[in-house]
């Protein structure tokens, strides 16, 4: 069995209903992510937190120093769990995430977080391309309604399309219950 690490991606206040970029199903996703987090801590699985911050103070969201960039309390880091601050969608880009994973001997990752169609997608694809098999806990991730070329795409469909793409070619997708039972 490969050594596993849990990566908690961007479960920040900005995505809550009171934030500037509320996501559909964020409360349930954070609650499920918290369950996976408790399990990881109990089993000694290394945990890595990723937090997005804009690199510009005049950005509309994820402004440094605001409550929006803070990690939600239900999944807040404890002890020596690293927090990787990123300025791009991909958590590996211009960060030391890989260094942290390698330092802890992580060989495969489990991903929870936000947004399914952006930062979760980017970290899963990059991780797999770098040789880390990935499992996504689908009910511990959230996203938003999108629109393209006049077509409205509800968050549930955006999320399902991302999870289907992962299963098709990038990794394993499980519910938190399935993951905890394994």
Provide structural commentary.
With 182 residues, the protein is α/β, with parallel strands linked by helices. It has one domain: Rossmann fold (3-Layer(aba) Sandwich). It contains five helices and eight strands, in the order E-H-E-E-H-E-H-E-E-E-H-E-H. A six-stranded parallel sheet has the order 3-2-1-4-5-8. The protein has a two-stranded antiparallel sheet with strand order 6-7. Helix 1 (26-43) links the parallel strand 1 (4-9) and strand 2. Helix 3 (116-129) runs parallel beside helix 4. The model has no long low-confidence stretch (mean pLDDT 97). Residues 6-148 form the Isochorismatase-like domain. It comes from Castellaniella ginsengisoli.
For the largest beta sheet, what order do the strands appear in spatially? 3-2-1-4-5-8
Question: What is the SS-derived class?
Answer: alpha/beta
CATH class: Alpha Beta
Quantity of strands, as a count: 8
Q: Regions with pLDDT < 50 over 5+ consecutive residues?
A: none
Name of the CATH architecture = 3-Layer(aba) Sandwich
Q: Report Rg.
A: 15 Å
State the CATH topology: Rossmann fold
Question: What is the global morphology?
Answer: globular
How much is the average pLDDT?
97
Termini gap: 13 Å
CATH homologous superfamily (4th level) name: Isochorismatase-like
Number of helices: 5
Run of helices and strands = EHEEHEHEEEHEH
Estimate the helix proportion, in percent. Answer: 25-40%
Major sheet: 6 strands, parallel
Counted up, domains total 1
* Beta-strand percent range: 15-25%
């Amino acid at each position: 069995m490969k050594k596993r690490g849990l990566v908690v991606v961007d479960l920040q206040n900005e995505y809550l209903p009171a934030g500037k970029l509320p996501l559909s199903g964020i409360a349930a996703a954070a609650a499920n992510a918290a369950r996976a987090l408790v399990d990881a801590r109990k089993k000694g699985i290394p945990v890595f937190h990723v937090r997005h911050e804009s690199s510009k103070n005049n950005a509309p969201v994820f402004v440094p120093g605001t409550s929006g960039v803070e990690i939600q309390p239900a999944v807040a880091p404890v002890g020596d769990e690293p927090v990787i601050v990123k300025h791009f969608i991909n958590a590996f880009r211009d960060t030391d995430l890989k260094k942290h994973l390698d330092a802890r001997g992580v060989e495969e990752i489990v991903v929870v977080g936000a947004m399914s169609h952006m930062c979760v997608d980017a970290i899963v694809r990059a991780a797999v391309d770098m040789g880390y098999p990935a499992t996504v806990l689908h009910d511990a991730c959230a996203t938003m309604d999108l629109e393209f070329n006049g077509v409205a795409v509800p968050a549930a469909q955006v999320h399902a399309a991302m999870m289907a793409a992962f299963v098709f070619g990038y990794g394993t997708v499980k519910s938190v219950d399935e993951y905890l039972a394994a």
